[in-house]
Amino acid sequence: AYPELADLLGDRHRIVANDWQAASMSSLAGRLLHRAVDLVDQVDLAALELALQAIDQDGRPRCVNMAAASLADDGFIAEVQQRLNSAPQAAAKLWIDMAEGVALQSRRLRDAITAWRQLGVSVGLEHAGAGLLDLSRLHALGVDYIKIDGAFVQGVATQPEVRELARGLIA
What pTM, to 2 d.p., does this model score? Predict the structure, then answer.
């Protein structure tokens, strides 16, 4: 920020000044990242609310994809539960997608999935891949559907070995 001052103080102080600038930028990045996570929660809750309202209006099922950052927040999970409880008829026609890694890591989220499913919500995993190797954990989640990552099925039409893998995954 002040190169003339750094030149005046010499190389040793220039390093300190550069470290201070780096620390300042890191702090700023951290604050912006924290704010972005807050916004993701708000976007996910707004999407949930819009989906529930749309279901109420026309009775057609809707799917909402929820971000990993949102689902890692206990307050967010509680808010989702509250909104689902307040609209049980719409909740019964709602689908919620989430990343497989988040669902497998959080005990609190696994409990929420159970509660959501009791309201009739269909819960599924998107971009499933690595977790498919641990089918017992996926089965314990009690999800309704799994969207397989495209990397596992790319070439299914032209490559027999990929076709066999895909058959095995859905069998």
Answer: 0.71
